[in-house]
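2024-03-11 09:14:02 DEBUG pipeline.ingest accepted 1 chain
2024-03-11 09:14:02 DEBUG pipeline.ingest length=174
2024-03-11 09:14:03 DEBUG pipeline.predict start
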Amino acid sequence: MVGASYAAVPFYNWFCRATGFGGTTQVATSAPTQVTNRAVTVRFDSNIQGGLPWKFVPEQDEVHIKIGEVATVYYSVTNQSASTTTGQASYNVTPLTVGSYFTKINCFCFTEQTLAPHEKRDMAVVFYVDPSMLQDSDQNGTNTITLSYTFYPVKNPAPKPVAASNADQRKSSL
């Protein structure tokens, strides 16, 4: 039972990433080859939890994109404290059933973000809605997708190598 308990969390995380269950988005290393005529609106939501002293907002409330079109959107984050702080973003999309079609190529959410006192940074997310969504009849009425991020404080940030940069970097790929 103890072994099953420990295996449950990584298995559930893998299941969500593989299927998009619960609004878990997908990760890709390249853009799709097809852009369709059907458009969707993607809205952006931002939240801070656990006492992280940051201001975190999308630079625009929404974009209108064609399915298969790659979009880059920026979020602005400001450390409002007098000390260095580190956060990690979790994310999902709604409706929850579009998670398997919403695909990120690059995102600030792939790595911990460390901000110096009062530092302000613009962070990008590069994404597309997979054209295979058009083959799913359950998505015929989906015209709006909301991408939501919540930043949580990281109590023991991972040490950065001396040569590390602040650029967005991928942790995983398909």
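2024-03-11 09:14:41 DEBUG pipeline.report The first strand starts at residue 26 and ends at 27.
2024-03-11 09:14:41 DEBUG pipeline.predict end
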